[in-house]
Amino acid sequence: MKFIRNDHSIEKEVESHLSDKFGKAVEINSSGSLGGGCINNASKIETNAGTFFLKWNGNCASDIFLREAESLEELRNAASGQLAVPKVFAAKEVNGTPGFLVLEYLEPGWGKGNSDEKLGRGLATIHRFSSEKFGFYNDNYCGSTPQNNSWHTSWPEFFRDNRLRYLLGLIRQERSLPASEMKVYEQLLERIPELIPGDCTPVLIHGDLWSGNYMNTANGPALIDPASYYANYEMEMGIMTMFGGFSQRFYSAYNEVNPLPAGWRERNSLYQLYHVLNHYYLFGGGYGSQAFHIAKSYL
């Protein structure tokens, strides 16, 4: 049987986790490699308990799959059936052997009706799922970048300290950031409470919703690869508008359920800044100058 790069130790661990989940012996009958992202490996696995999606990696943060599982479960609860979110069947940390995540397999395809409108209404439904504070139950990852999710009662403070300041600290450790540029970022950090509203309700967001992190299935659009936390929902629009891929039909349907407030476009580049800085941290290149340009534009 051809399996995960002939790594039968992963095969046996997956079978063990699924056997515990279903209360019976689960065996993998076949598998096929899928086009994964830039971080993890991915396969479709056929078992005597059904078909599943498997992603795995041994060269990543030890808890990355556990944290993704938490995000998926929270999104699935918040979506209330309005959007598909794959069910989590097993999650394992990296501990000498690769970590993995076993999910419900979603068949790519096109369901009946308008996918863009369903995605808009479904995301708006998620953005009405609230918490008392900004943050999340555990720190997690945006891609492979750590996210500090410690709880805050203030959105400007959370965005300033847990997102921008924290990420700038990572960049200073791993990449060059001239003192002259850091001075500009420090000036921006001081202005954050003036630039973004503090009177907002913490709501659940996907956290990394670019066009590659949702898919169309026979049952409608589905969200995948989240980096979730409770935030001002305007934060979601930063990454969504950074690369495009969301139609006017999507935004119209979204606004029917959860209208975007006046002035959100003026603040949007500020929320994009977090993701541009993250891309600079991960990939380097021109993202650094792009981020610096955004920072200066708000001074």
Automatic annotation (TrEMBL):
Alphabetized UniProt keyword annotations: Kinase, Transferase
GO molecular function: kinase activity
Pfam family, one: Fructosamin_kin
Family statement drawn from the similarity comment of this UniProt entry: Belongs to the fructosamine kinase family.
PANTHER family: FRUCTOSAMINE 3 KINASE-RELATED PROTEIN, PROTEIN-RIBULOSAMINE 3-KINASE
Name of the protein: Fructosamine kinase
Source species: Mariniphaga sediminis
